[in-house]
Amino acid sequence: MPTPMPTPSASPSASPSASPSAAPPAASIGLGPRRVAWRALQAVAAGAWADAALERELARLPLAPADRALATDLAYGAIRQRRLLDAWLSAHGRLPAQRQPPKLRWLLHLGLYQLLFMERVPAAAAVSTTVELAKQGGLGRLASVANGVLRSVLRTRAPLAAKDPLAALPLPSEPVEAFGLRHSLPDWIAAALLDWLPAERAEAFGRAANAPPPLDLRVNRLRADRDAVLELLASAGVAAAPLPDLADGLTLLSRAGDVTALPGYGEGLWSVQDRSAQRIAPLLEPKPGDRHLDACAAPGGKSTHLAESLGPTGTVWAVDRAGSRLKRLQANALRLGLEGIQVLEADATALPQDHPEWRGAFAGILVDAPCSGLGTLCRHPDARWRFEPAALEELTALQDRLLDAMVPLLAPGGRLVYATCSVHPRENGERIAAFLERQPLWQLAFERQWWPGEEKGGDGFYAAVLRPPA
After folding, report:
1. Distance of alpha carbon 284 from alpha carbon 415, whole angstroms
2. Which residue in 144, 245, 295, 346 is deepest, having the highest Cβ count within 10 Å?
């Protein structure tokens, strides 16, 4: 599950290790969260996933809740805005951003992000803490460079009194490059969006890709109802609202910090699940007592949703190749009190051969396929920089194999749901069209693409419901 991004602190506290008898130097105040964010940026640049890198750094340097929030906002925000921050660095540094020493590049991203995007952080604090981190982090000889770049950006923007991060930064004349810079997206994604969507919707997608994602919850209907959970949260001072088109869905109206500390979590009254993801399991029309298969189950949000809908007499076989992620599923099922989930570490494409007893055994099958994740750029800020178009060939081939493997496992009259958290047509509608060419007697009963930036919000998801021949 992606790490929730709490509201950043305007006045970060001093490092926990500071002596209580003497005030720390002004430049040292708030270094803890910034140091965590800087290390996370370096880890992501070296290939780590953003959420894992940040959690690892937070474990290394425990912080107060407000400082954890600041570190999270700095790290995720700087990763999202990498292209825009690079443009500012190239415009005001002696070297282009890509030729800067990597440690300095990511440190300057940290300082620039505060100057350009965090109005409540004083400019002087953004500059002084960046310079101090350079001195303490092995970049002492480059501290003056960091100071010079940040102050140059400030001087350029000061006459404009600008709040727009693009103000005083020249935009490319080429439309794709300009769109990519405005929304900090690589050119290939920018070009694809402008091809797939009208201009207004492409702009909405770009804005959504850089906004903190909502924190949505799904109420466990076996243990509570939505009104009771809303009342429980309200009693703890947590503002929340129902999601009108989702019977068990609600959204938090403010950042909540550690969600596991919220009322009802330990009792298994709810799970964290994006509103778009909550729309997938109901497409199987699960009925109490049914037997369902989740072929790509980990980390388990949709498996547990199915189990809650099927009730104590139903069964969900949760299959995934990643044993470590299946352990998270099992732990979550235990917390939610779901006894009907059976876990199997296996390659779903081999299920018809490895489990012949499963042929025709499932009333519903979910293929929540491995995908590019292009619908979740706000939630996974590094995905835009990590995924390459060439990887689509391997992904789409796997998606086809998964769909084909499910055909003999579905019971007559059953429903096969194919879903991705992508917006790429090659992973979505084109895969279903190809499947129907291979299985001409099957029918497409439902198809929908949800886009980031749409009125109801949420991640970008695709879903199709397939029915076998009668």
Report:
1. 6
2. 295
DSSP 8-state class, residue 98:
G
Cα gap 78→118, rounded to integer Å: 11
Euclidean distance between CA atoms 273 and 276, whole angstroms: 8
Q: Which residue has the tokens 């952080």?
A: 121
pLDDT tens digits for 70-101?
A: 999 999 999 999 999 999 999 999 999 999 99
pLDDT at residue 22, as a whole number: 44
Locate all alpha helices (DSSP H) within 183-322, ordered by sequence. 187-196, 199-209, 226-235, 301-310
Model confidence, pTM: 0.90
User: Quick one: which H or E segment has residue 85?
Assistant: helix 82-92
Was domain 26-165 assigned CATH 3.30.450.150?
no
Q: Does domain 279-467 have CATH number 3.40.50.620?
A: no
Q: Which CATH superfamily is domain 211-272 in?
A: Sun protein; domain 3 (3.30.70.1170)
Q: Which residues contact 96 (CB under 8 A, 6 or more apart)?
A: 89, 90
pLDDT tens readout for residues 271-309:
999 999 999 999 999 999 999 999 999 999 999 999 999
Residues 6 or more apart whose Cβ sits within 8 Å of residue 340:
307, 310, 311, 312, 313, 314, 315, 316
Cα–Cα distance measured from residue 28 to residue 35, given in angstroms and rounded to the nearest whole number:
11
Residues 137-166: tens digit of each pLDDT: 999 999 999 999 999 999 999 888 788 999
Quick one: pLDDT at residue 161?
79
Domain boundaries, the chain: 26-165, 211-272, 279-467
Helix/strand/coil for 296: coil
Distances (CA, A) of 12 to 33, 122, 249: 8, 11, 33
DSSP label at residue 394: H
Q: Which residues are tagged catalytic?
A: 421
